[in-house]
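Tutorial, part two.
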Amino acid sequence: MELGSILQFLENKTILLTGVTGFLAKIFVEKILRVQPNVKKLYLLLRAADATSASYRFHSEVIGKDLFRVAKETLGANFDAIISKKIIVVCGDVFYGDLGIKDSSLREEMMNELDIVLNFAATTKFYERYDIAFGTNTIGPKNVICFAKTCLKVKLFVQISTAYVCGESSGLIPEKPYRLGETLNGVSGLDIDYEKKLIDTKLDELRAQGATETEIKHAMKDMGTERAKRYGWPNTYVFTKAMGEMLIGNIKGNLALVIIRPSMITSTFKDPFPGWIEGARTIDALTVSYGKGKLTFFVVDLESIVDVIPGDMVVNAIIAAMVAHANQPCDEVIYHVGSSLQNPMRYSNFRDYLIQYFTNKPWMDKNGKPIKVNKPTIFNSISNFNRFIKIRYSPLLKI
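Running the prediction step on this input gives:
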């Protein structure tokens, strides 16, 4: 797809983004502002107590980040003018109908102007509380697409999901939608309305028993894991994201729908500059732990492939999909965005990269001294790992 056609498509478009303080949404906003400052408007939904708090969050947690350095340099003095003219910060929450937007005039303005709606909002913790994950990852997409369907000019709805809604299957994974009640293991009985009732009943029971907030938190985490595994998903995160896909596919009507399923998202590859990351996510946690000298061994099959994809490549795929599928009312298209097939990285490669990088550019400790790293010990099975722990550490712990 030609860059010119993409830029032309984005010109004068009015776009709504949810979850804008998230890692991927920030990269998307930066990209749009930098490559197409003639976009008409970006409505950015943020959770906050009020409009003032939402504006503060936007400036501190979004454009205040180093990610926007290149855009500020490129646009110069125009950057602040573009932000004030093009960006509309919206106080709201995907958990609620009408996205929790209390300002009726702003809500009506959005309904009249929006061309594209993208739902980035999600909680990405694997073992999140079931009530929280269900509210954001399952009910959230439903509320966003319902809002999109009330908008007069909307041409496309884009849902940012995850490749791991496909569970732990191996081989070629088809890009097919989930239908209501469909499960990974074939167990029948998955009913999203019933899941909501189960959550409410469990919370009422815990509160009636006088459970503490900590006890409620652990109980809801355990419930999410149990419900996910009952139907074949490995954790609460991917289970609730899969149910979110089911709901929006069921109620989309004639609205064009694109579901983006990225694999493990890592730092930017080159756009706006290489290596921008926020926090230690997925495989980055291993990288940081190894660099600090804390990860000396781990369990892994060195020949298996770790599917990682840079954040800017995911954003490029989202934008290309927007251009390709806007105004296609019959479309429900899914894109898996990963690296396993065309540019696979094995865990043996990952190990070698860690050793090479931190040997040449060691992490500095709090005293400014380089941390020396060694080749990590690899266990190819849990049984070997458990045997090592039993011999190496159990006697010391007993003493």
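The mean pLDDT is 93. In part three we will examine how such features are distributed along the chain.
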